Amino acid sequence: MPKTERSYVFRPNQLKFWDICFFAPPQDIKLLFLKWLRDRLDVQHVLRSEKVSLKVTETQELGMEVTPSLLPVLTDTQGFRSEGFDPQVYWENLGTRLLGRVVLFTEVVATTMDLFGGWMLQLPEEVGLIAIAARQTQGKGRGRNAWISPKGSAMFTAHVCIPLHSELGRCIPFIQHLVPLAVVEAVLSLPGYEDIDLRVKWPNDIYYSGLMKLGGALVTSTLMGTTFHVLIGCGFNVSNSNPTICINDIIQRHNRENGTDLQPFRIDQLIARTLTQFEDFLHTFQTQGPNGVLPLYYKRWLHSGQQVRLWREDGPVAHIVGLDNCGFLQVQQEDDVIISVQPDGNSFDMLRNLIVTKQH
């Protein structure tokens, strides 16, 4: 049904929290998820969680309480309309087997990552759950960084299960490299878009050339038994020219400079294409290991042969060699010794060609 605004106003920037709408066209997956969900609701039909609890209802109820920590999930979405998400466009562009097949969409939320609580550790593997928002008020980045998430950005968090005793399960940090690569390939794999200058920056950023950041990924994992439950948070600029630049700006510039007529992207279209690429990369990695994805990764990244300094501006000089099998950055020092730099504790300062310890 059509969206109507709720009474709660998020005062810091006057954005309102809206209901969450539930979509899952495959009927068997929809029934599986709803049964799983309803088995875990309390007497008030609420799925309790540490940060955001979800009240499951078919339609909006008169006087229903809506707060940043209690949001309704509407299961009857007939007549749904939103500028930020068209389910038909999303499904037409989604080519996954599991990932992103169950959608929770909301117009505004603090961060999509908070919609996943401890209950995700019990999610059936067949449920590829994703939370998508048109806007976030407290988007998360690495460490304590915040990501500005205005209208026009693609913002989502997806849940994926990775077996511990698998190729990727043995080097789980590699996932954060596959996410930005999937975003870049979502654009460049379309005929005509191959020369759009989108690049990957180690460890988890999306860049326009080597000039401006367009977005990035935040990946967290929890081991439950022999399964990693991985949350993939991702945000990138699609049609918002501020605060930096967006993909559609780059396409428009490309059209002017090359006399082409490439069409701009929709947010729902690119999220679906990103998930499709990402699931393909997961399958390739699981069957072929790192060497199955590294050639494409090196083709898209910014760093081949780049000279950097380590730890401080007057630190030792080194040259980037590539990634090791765990996804750590390999650099060769002047004495030819090759060392690995872990992504979780370090950051790449592009402006200064400096690898520094990440501040938390």
UniProtKB/TrEMBL annotation:
Spell out the Gene3D superfamilies in the cross-references. Bira Bifunctional Protein, Domain 2
Keyword annotations: Ligase
Report domain BPL/LPL catalytic positions. 82-286
A cellular component term, taken from the record's GO annotations: cytoplasm
An example molecular function term from Gene Ontology annotations: biotin--[biotin carboxyl-carrier protein] ligase activity
One Pfam family linked to the record: BPL_C
**Residues in coiled coil:** none
Q: Carries keyword Protein biosynthesis?
A: no
Specify whether Secreted is a keyword of the entry.
Answer: no
Domain of life of the native organism: Eukaryota
> Which protein family is named in the record?
Belongs to the biotin--protein ligase family.
The protein in question is named BPL/LPL catalytic domain-containing protein
Record organism? Callorhinchus milii (Ghost shark)
